[in-house]
Design a protein that fits this description.
The chain is mainly alpha-helical. Helices cover 55% and strands 0% of the residues. The protein contains six helices and no strands. The radius of gyration is 26 Å and the shape is elongated.
Length: 154
């Protein structure tokens, strides 16, 4: 793998040349010096770094987070990686909670619209309880809770 030009390096790692250049501009990959051949040649360390970047992207780490994990000359410890992964897990847990809540709200909306009368669906009321679809604490909906009003056809 050592000594590959950018095109061969990118192809070997399954990315485009512009992806390699993008990561270089972001400071995630270094730009090798030109060798005697006049070409920039990528090393095994470059391959490891690109593979790390790609794995981290698949795990939804941002480019900034990846830069922090890589640090200067891969100076980060496994403890840093564990802490970052735990932080990412916490963020994902929060997103899952929000998505489950949204899923519940949408299921209630479908139930109201399928089994209630048209007025209930238009007003986004829950069945006969008179409770509106609202905030997470049972209060009136916030801007992020609101669902567009469905209009009845004439």
């Amino acid at each position: 793998m050592a000594g590959l030009t950018i095109g061969k390096f990118a192809a070997a790692e399954g990315v485009g040349v512009e992806t390699v250049r993008f990561y270089q501009r972001r400071g995630l990959l270094t730009r090798p010096e030109r060798e005697g051949s006049g070409f920039r040649e990528y090393s095994e360390a470059d391959r490891w770094r690109l593979a790390f970047i790609r794995r981290a992207r698949r795990l939804r780490f941002t480019l900034g987070e990846i830069g922090d994990l890589l640090g200067p000359a891969e100076a980060r410890s496994t403890g840093d990686i564990v802490a970052a992964a735990e932080s990412k897990l916490g963020a994902i847990d929060e997103q899952l909670t929000e998505l489950r809540l949204l899923q519940c709200r949408l299921r209630r909306l479908v139930q109201v619209c399928e089994h209630g009368d048209g007025d209930d669906c238009v007003a986004l009321h829950l069945g006969g309880t008179g409770t509106r679809l609202g905030g997470t604490d049972g209060t009136s909906p916030t801007a992020s809770d609101r669902v567009p009003t469905l209009r009845k056809e004439p």
